[in-house]
Automatic annotation (TrEMBL):
<protein>
    <submittedName>
        <fullName>Ketosteroid isomerase</fullName>
    </submittedName>
</protein>
<feature type="domain" description="SnoaL-like">
    <location>
        <begin position="15"/>
        <end position="116"/>
    </location>
</feature>
<dbReference type="InterPro" id="IPR032710">
    <property type="entry name" value="NTF2-like_dom_sf"/>
</dbReference>
<keyword id="KW-0413">Isomerase</keyword>
<dbReference type="InterPro" id="IPR037401">
    <property type="entry name" value="SnoaL-like"/>
</dbReference>
<dbReference type="GO" id="GO:0016853">
    <property type="term" value="F:isomerase activity"/>
</dbReference>
<dbReference type="Pfam" id="PF12680">
    <property type="entry name" value="SnoaL_2"/>
</dbReference>
Length: 126
């Protein structure tokens, strides 16, 4: 059953990211989802993660490495019944590393109200 894309839905997904709730995040993703990370070995798209299992592994690893990672100053836009955009500032300090702060955005694609693609972009602040 399809559900509409709303600001509340995008906030719910983002709240899962801030709680580091991998299962909660992925409950909003389709089984055949794709996440194009902001950087990685596959230029120009960065790292391509396919499916919930791979995305879960990446997220759990990231949260272990950056236990205070959080997304703030969140803004969302709904483009139509299949696309949305989120803008944010992500902050955190990797274990044994220096604090970071990036201005970024996610381009979201949905099918039947479930995330099928999350395409992330960011740039360093400071």
């Amino acid at each position: 059953m399809s559900r509409p894309i709303t600001i509340a839905l995008l906030d719910e997904i983002q709240d899962g990211f801030n709680r580091h709730d991998v299962d909660g995040i992925l409950s909003h993703f389709a089984d055949d989802c794709v996440w194009l990370m902001a950087r990685g070995p596959n230029a120009p798209e960065g790292r391509r993660c396919v499916g919930k299992a791979e995305i879960a592994q990446v997220l759990r690893g990231r949260y272990a490495e950056i236990p205070d990672m959080r997304w703030e100053e969140m803004r969302h836009w709904i483009c139509d019944d299949t696309k949305a955009l989120s803008e944010w500032v992500v902050r955190g300090t990797p274990a044994g590393g220096q604090p970071f702060e990036y201005l970024g955005c996610d381009l979201w694609e949905f099918r039947d109200g479930m995330v099928v693609k999350k395409d992330t972009y960011w740039k360093f602040i400071g």
